[in-house]
Amino acid sequence: MAGIKHCYRGELASLYGHIGEAQLFLWMEGVKNKTHGRHCPNRQLKVYRRKEFFEQARLQTRRWNGYAIDVDRVLKDFSNFGSDHHYCNLLGSLLGVFSYRLRMEISDRFRGYLPVVVDLETGGFSKEDNPILEVACSFVAMRDDRLCLKDSASWSLEPFEGSHIEPASLKITKIDLDDPNRNALDEREALVAFFKVVRDEMKFAGCHRAIMVAHNASFDQGFLNAACERLKLKRSPFHPFTALDTATMGALAFGHTVLSEACRRAGIDFSEAQAHNAAYDAERTAELFCHIVNAWPSSRIGWKGAKKKPRPLSRT
């Protein structure tokens, strides 16, 4: 019996090597009765920072391939420890918690950056003279190691004072500036609300910064940066110059840079009647982005949780 216990002690030591981040510290003490391997009633398992460990376990539950951590069972095994049976149960509970492969989180996939799909509808092509009329964003999340569309938000904006609107742009976007149902906000108010939604999602996802995803991203990024400079907004959540361009990604994956055609080649429904609406375009762009990212296996990005080692790309 004592030999079995020593074996388990070794497994617990090995277990600690796997969960060092959780700061679970275990040791055996008070072993005074060693005669004939009989049960030692004063053998105890001590746990330091147990509360912190289980709180972290709760926070990380979503990372264990959908299996919930049975915290009550583990706590029961801790409190009932005092026999070989409870010792086995305790070890089994802990090994059960840490035996599942970690799911990839969005912060793992993009090294701490949160990709936010953005689409702007503007009053022309000049970021200095033409206003932003609509802003929309779509958020994505990892589910079963696949990137999926999560939710979206959009805002209508009033043109800033002194701006110029090209009539041709309104014909393309079909925006009616006199429509009372637009519920348009002041440019500053809309962008502050937009940035707050992005920061909230960053915090939820555990990311330290947002990175813009857009179709022809330099256009949207340029207008957004110009608006921030004009309004003296210094706390944009987005990276100031790095962006992920789905036009480039579409050219690589499908041989086409036009959003509607790239979506069709990806098998994504696209309505020309609804196109050039910021909310609609943002969602289609998000679906295209997810489709292309999901076609690239995690084993090729060198993620620590990937099953296979990265393989070099073919030279042919």
What does this structure look like?
The chain is of the alpha/beta class. Helices cover 41% and strands 18% of the residues. A hairpin with a 2-residue loop joins strand 4 (132-143) and strand 5. Helix 1 packs parallel to helix 4 and helix 9 (246-254) crosses helix 11 (278-294). The chain starts with a helix and ends in a 22-residue tail after the last helix.
Number of strands: 7
Q: Low-confidence segments, ≥5 residues, pLDDT <50? A: 1-75, 83-87, 95-101, 307-316
Proportion of residues in helical segments:
40-55%
User: Can you count the helices?
Assistant: 11
Rg over CA atoms, rounded to whole Å, is 27 Å
Q: What name does CATH use for the topology of the largest domain?
A: Nucleotidyltransferase, domain 5
Strand order in the sheet with the most strands: 5-4-3-6-7
The geometry reads as globular
Largest sheet: 5 strands, mixed
* Range of strand content: 15-25%
The total tally of domains equals: 2
Keywords, separated by commas or semicolons:
316 residues; 2 domains; 11 helices; alpha/beta; two-stranded antiparallel ribbon; 5-stranded mixed β-sheet; single chain
